[in-house]
Amino acid sequence: MCAQTISHIKTVFSFVGENSAMKSFIECMDKQYKLGKKEAITKGLGLGMLQIATFCSYSLTIYIGALAVTRRSCDVTPADIFICNFRYLSNAAPDLQTFSQAKAAGKEVFKVIKRKPAINYESNGRILEKVTGHIEIREVDFTYPSRKDKLILQGFTLVIPAGKVVALVGSSGCGKSTVISLVQRFYD
């Protein structure tokens, strides 16, 4: 459901379906939460026991090492200490990278979640009695928000009568997709 919504995000935006998509997502996540709760407890207990065993063995090793050093039966140099500590610190590096990637991905997702449509499509809006399907675009000048210096459409006019099939044909970059996006009101 998420992959489908994200891959068709322009369509979701054009029909102002963010709230509906969010509601479906929340319902889906509630089901997953209930199913995963028991599994998470089991895995958490298992991992916790494993961590207890690991850290108890570390503690025992450190205790025995400390006894050996205090009895002067073993010499420890600063290099030995550095190597041991560096090994433990290097174990955290993959987790830091994963955290950084998740933070970057989350930032983009939250942009979409927090986006407010320029047009308010409340359900209590005006209901049209008759929709004919007639599309008319008059004297449109358009630049993409990211490239204000490059004019994509200049004085563009298009009339498509209801019931007619029209093909937009042209070279790459001439504005075919832009016209469709404007009809969908993606750039309002």
TrEMBL record:
Signal peptide segment: none
UniProt-annotated location(s): Membrane
Keyword Manganese in annotation: no
Assigned keywords, A-Z: Membrane, Repeat, Transmembrane, Transmembrane helix, Transport
Gene Ontology cellular component terms for the protein in this record: mitochondrial inner membrane
Domain ABC transmembrane type-1: residue ranges: 1-86
InterPro entries: ABC1_TM_dom, ABC1_TM_sf, ABC_transporter-like_ATP-bd, P-loop_NTPase, Type_1_exporter
Main location: membrane
GO BP term, example: oligopeptide export from mitochondrion
Membrane topology of the entry: Multi-pass membrane protein
GO molecular function: ABC-type oligopeptide transporter activity; ATP binding; ATP hydrolysis activity
Protein's name in the database: ABC transmembrane type-1 domain-containing protein
Species, as recorded: Aegilops tauschii subsp. strangulata (Goatgrass)
